[in-house]
Amino acid sequence: MRAHILAALLSLGAMCAAGCGGAQGGKFANTSNRESTIVPNVGFILIARGAPLRHSAVTGPEANLLYVLVVCPGMQGELTGTRSNIGRFTSDYWHSWSTPLGEVSLSFIWDRVADTVHLAASDYQREHGNAFIVRRDPTVGTWRAQQLSSIDPQLSAAEALREIQFQAADDPAITSLAIYPGA
Hints:
Elements: H1 2-17, E1 28-39, E2 42-54, E3 57-58, E4 63-72, E5 78-86, E6 90-99, E7 102-111, E8 116-119, E9 122-125, E10 131-136, E11 143-148, H2 157-167, H3 172-175, E12 178-179
Parallel strand pairs: 4-10
Antiparallel strand pairs: 1-2, 1-12, 2-3, 2-4, 5-6, 6-7, 7-8, 8-9, 10-11
């Protein structure tokens, strides 16, 4: 009898190690993501919503935890693919565009255990700012990221864009942007 109980407990432990039914872990749960297209440049603003966690249980209200403005100045193209995966400990994002020169893609990761965002080959502590600008350099085709100060966790996409524009007031590529009508 003890052997059966021990085997059942080991089996339950293995199942929990593999995900415990999909429960999220880390400092935050990522409950949803919303994207709004921007104009006149190719790009979008992503808002990741979630709530604080403790021992995989939600301990606070849901809020916007991450704002990422992606802009591709001078790029002609259309979005051909978008994917996000809210995993147990990370949230992974991937986007691709078809352009006259070929495919352009961007991926980034929010590690919800370390509460870091991996953008354009750099890691950023989200506690130092929950808003980011990711820009494609049209001359060399690489991505650059900039972390901004934190903005209010309850903003709409249009309000978040205005806050980001306020922080990047000397950058005409950012201040000229608007949310696509109807987005």
